[in-house]
Amino acid sequence: VTPLDEDLKAQYQDEFVLGGEYQFAGQWSAGVRFVDRELKRVIEDFGTFTDPSDPSALTGYVIGNPGEGNFGSLYAKPKRYYRAMELTLQRAKADNWQLYSSFVYAKAEGNYEGLYISGYDQLDPNITALYDIPSFLANADGKLRADKPYQFKVHGSYSFPFGLTVSEGFFLSAGIPISAQGPEIYNGYGDGTIW
Questions:
Q1: Which of 37, 3, 35 is nearest to 19 (CA)?
Q2: What is the pLDDT averaged over residues 71-80?
Q3: Looking at residue 126, what is its pLDDT?
C-alpha cells in the first residue's frame, strides 16, 4: 500500500483562450485564437529515502504533490506551459465545394510531460517514474515532446452533381524535439530516465 501525503491536493491547470472570427464574402470566414495553458499542480508518486545506513537507497513511495507538502517539497515543482496562436480560414459549402485551413504556432515547455512519459514509454497516470528519484529531474527543463512550433492543415471537398464527393487533406508539422536520455543503473530503472 502506497501512503498518501496528508497535505495532498487536487491537480489542476489554468487555461485562457481569447479569439474571434470574422465572416466575409458570404461563405468565407477568418479567425484568430490565442491559448495560454499552464499546469499548476499534479498528483504523482515520489520516492522516499529513509534508510539511515544508505541515504541514497530508494525505500518506498508516497503519493502527493511534487514541490508541495511534507514529502513533495524535496522535489522540483512540475512545470508545463503551452502557448499558441491559431489562424483559420474557412469556406462554408456552396457551389458544391468547401474548405477549411488552419495554421498554429505554438510552444510547449517545462519539466513535466504529463501522465505518459514518452522517453521511458511509460503509461502509468499519476505514478510515472519521473519523481521516483530526484536525479530524474536534473536537466528536465526545456522543450516538451508536445512542442511542435508550427502545424498547417488544409481540408477541402467537392461534390459532383451525380452524387460523388471527392475530398483532400494536407497536414504539415514541425517534428518533435529529441532529447538525449540515458539509463539509471543504481535502482534498475533502465534506459530513458536520466536527461
A1: 35
A2: 86
A3: 83
Report pLDDT digits (tens) over 119-158: 667 777 888 888 888 878 888 888 988 888 999 999 999 9
> Residue-wise over 91-110: b if at least 16 C-beta within 10 A, else e?
beeeeeebbebbebebebbb
Q: Is 49 exposed, middle or buried (0-12, 13-18, 19+ CB in 10 A)?
A: middle
* Grid cell listed for 156: 477541402
When the pLDDT of each residue in the chain is averaged and rounded to a whole number, the result is 88
The three cell numbers of residue 142 are 526545456
Residue type, 170: F
Quote the cell numbers at residue 93.
Answer: 459549402
- Which among 137, 138, 128, 135 is positioned nearest to 63, based on CA atoms? 128
Cell, residue 83: 502557448
The sign of the dihedral angle between the CA atoms of 108, 111, 116, 121 is positive
And the C-alpha cell for 5? 501525503
